[in-house]
Request: fold
Amino acid sequence: MAVTRAKGKKTRSAGRFGVRYGRKNRKLVADIEEKMRAEHTCSKCGAKKVKRTATGIWNCTKCDYTFAGGSYVPRTPAQVAMLRAVQSHKQEAQNF
Reply:
């Protein structure tokens, strides 16, 4: 006999696709949507109130600060690396 599980525990937000598109694709969609809907901090006021308005457009609901970011997360790994490089370059320039 088949073991029954709690509905939606395995499929998460991709459960709306049913059995279509394959397990891996549904898992990738669920992972992306989980990151997108997580709490994000505002770079201006520091509150965890940033929501996605449209693709790449993010808005803080507390201070009403709107900024461009990644499609699914406000700060992409490439952006974080670039900011770190700029910061270290500024420090090197100050030491001269």
Remarks:
- Residues 57 and 78 are 17 Å apart (CA to CA).
- The longest helix spans residues 77-95.
- The first strand starts at residue 50 and ends at 54.
- Residues 40-96 form a domain with the N-terminal domain of TfIIb fold (CATH 2.20.25.30).
